[in-house]
Amino acid sequence: MFLPLVAKGFEMEIIPAHRVVAQIGGTVILTCNTTGCAFPKFSWRTQMDYPLGGIVSNNKLYSTLTMNPVSAENCNDYLCTVLCNKEKKEKSVKVELYSFPSDPVIETNTSLVVGETATVICKIRDVFPSNHLEVLLKKEGHILHSESFDGDVISTKTENITVAYSFNPATEDNGKEITCVASLQIAGMDFEPKERLTSLKLNASFGPQNTFINASPGNSSMEGHSLKLTCVTESNPPAQVFWRKHLAKETIQHFVENNVLSIPNARFTDSGQYICEVINPITKKTEKATVNIVIQAPPKNTALTVFPSSSVKEGESVTISCTAANVPAAQIILEKKIGDVVTTLKTEDGNYTINKAQLKDAGKYKCTFVNKFGNHSLDKELVVKVPPQNITVLIYPSENVEEGENVTIMCSTYSNPPSQMILKKVNQDKKIILPSVNGTFTLYNVTKNDTGRYLLDVFNEVGNNVKVIEIAVVGKLEKPGQIMPMIIAFSCATAIAIPVVAILIYVSRQAKINGSYSLVKALRLKV
């Protein structure tokens, strides 16, 4: 049994059907096919009679409309009309376009400096339709700024969109990322990607700040040991480092590398305040840090001074000072030594003051400087000058003598430096000055002309003292009967006087300070 063949009727279709989504700049090909028509006639137009914006190619049974490259003007409804004999058929397809060809470009308008206003700019090129674009600026996931372009004005061509955001960078922003996220969301339009993003790592110039000096092994070091000073600072870009020493006229001779100052063999003179000065070449800002370095050693730069002088007059004020460099710190001990007797004196900041100097204050003063690393001593002699005082005068045999006798005047005194002595007779036409020998004056073979008042002048560079002596000379006894008693008396007196004179001379020589002068025989007077 055979079924009869039924001829198919005239039909048409558009490929793709109904809707085309394409990116501007690409290629869109619309195909209009027919069946059941031996000689179809094709025509293309837009719904609003806009220019086709493409090339039509007709074949026997189909026709194509090629748009290459497709542009925003091609966003239309396209109708294909087919005539087959007297029969006409039409079908349309909607061409929907978008443009989102590249990731955003993010940049700043200037070099970033902490604390100064900067602007981040995000650029999205060739966007269509721009009224569907949304832009976010984020920092570490936190939204800084958002902007959308869904206004009433509908764009008819691709646009370059720019979003700017101003802010003040902080130090902690350095190294963080700002991300520009651009989204093109068109309802019902399926394309990828719908979101594009670009990140910029912030490089903000700042500093220097929080600058300090780290001393290794520490701020205090032993003489001869090595020492390293490191200047630590926060700066971007890295700061330039300059070293100097406070109040030092010469430049630092130690080894400097980058921010490290090395002292391989520290000396006591390396003690002091070191200054690290840093400067940021971009921000031009500077900052300083200081550190006090103490190099430990036995006492150094010690001194013993006596003010106003190591030789003073009795009654004057005198200050004895023991001084040492502040570093290394030293205990100061002041001692006074006279012979084998040593006395420790109490000082105030190393100073010992004698308000009214006496001869007992004279002697050797010794300063001893002690610390745990060693000791050092200095000494100086203090001389106290005293004018003549406590003058003692002995006259032998007495102030009253007979003609022809010798008169011995012995003088002792207490003074420093030793005194000189002269003997002068008062109220005499011819001025006669008699020197002494070891503090002794001798008048030989006296006469009545030697009777009178004598001035004994005792002096040194500090002052003088005067003693008045009365000498009386009487004539000799001439009666024979008196000769023997006189001889006996003289013998007795001589027997007593010789030991006395010897004792007086010994005492005179043992005096602490004495002067010595003699009357010369040239001054004898004729009997």
UniProtKB/TrEMBL annotation:
The keyword Membrane applies. It is found in: Membrane. CDD domains: Ig (cd00096). Its main location: membrane. It comes from the Eukaryota. Residues 4-96, 208-292, 299-383, 388-472 form the Ig-like domain. It is a single-pass type I membrane protein. One of its GO terms (cellular component) is plasma membrane. Pfam families: I-set (PF07679), ig (PF00047), Ig_3 (PF13927). InterPro entries: ICAM_VCAM (IPR047012), ICAM_VCAM_N (IPR003987), Ig-like_dom (IPR007110), Ig-like_dom_sf (IPR036179), Ig-like_fold (IPR013783), Ig_I-set (IPR013098), Ig_sub (IPR003599), Ig_sub2 (IPR003598). One of its GO terms (molecular function) is integrin binding. The chain crosses the membrane at residues 483-507. PANTHER family: INTERCELLULAR ADHESION MOLECULE, VASCULAR CELL ADHESION PROTEIN 1. This is Ig-like domain-containing protein.
